[in-house]
Write a structure and sequence with these properties.
Layout: H1 6-14, E1 19-21, E2 34-40, E3 45-51, E4 58-65, E5 77-82, E6 85-86, E7 102-103
């Protein structure tokens, strides 16, 4: 996705019904940023997306239970990920040949 397209897309996602601010959101490696969340009351899960505070680059997401289910107790982490690096290639399965376009960086809380 072109860099100029990403922030408007994420702002649109934040405006969807049921999406709320997640001020304590962080990715799998602990980076804090602007967080938005959506709770699925049917399945008792909450998913949070985390974005860089400066340029709204997608950092990662996490999902956890909000009620006790057969998968576990409320608060159980279901998934957590972090985008460490990404690049654009010409075809599926190809490895980038140049320097990374985006790399992880530490952030202050």
């Amino acid at each position: 996705m072109p860099p100029s397209t990403a922030p408007p897309l994420y702002r649109a996602a934040a405006a969807l019904p049921g999406v709320t601010e997640a001020p304590k959101a962080h990715d799998a490696i602990g980076r804090h940023g602007v967080g938005i969340a959506r709770e699925d009351t049917t399945y008792g899960t909450r998913t949070e997306w985390v974005f860089d505070r400066q340029d709204l680059t997608f950092l990662g997401s996490r999902s956890y239970l909000t009620k006790d289910t057969s998968y576990g107790k409320s608060g159980t982490l279901l998934s957590s990920n972090a985008v460490i690096e990404h690049a654009v290639v010409d075809k599926a399965g190809a490895e980038p040949t140049g320097p990374p376009r985006t790399t992880a960086r530490s952030q202050e809380s």
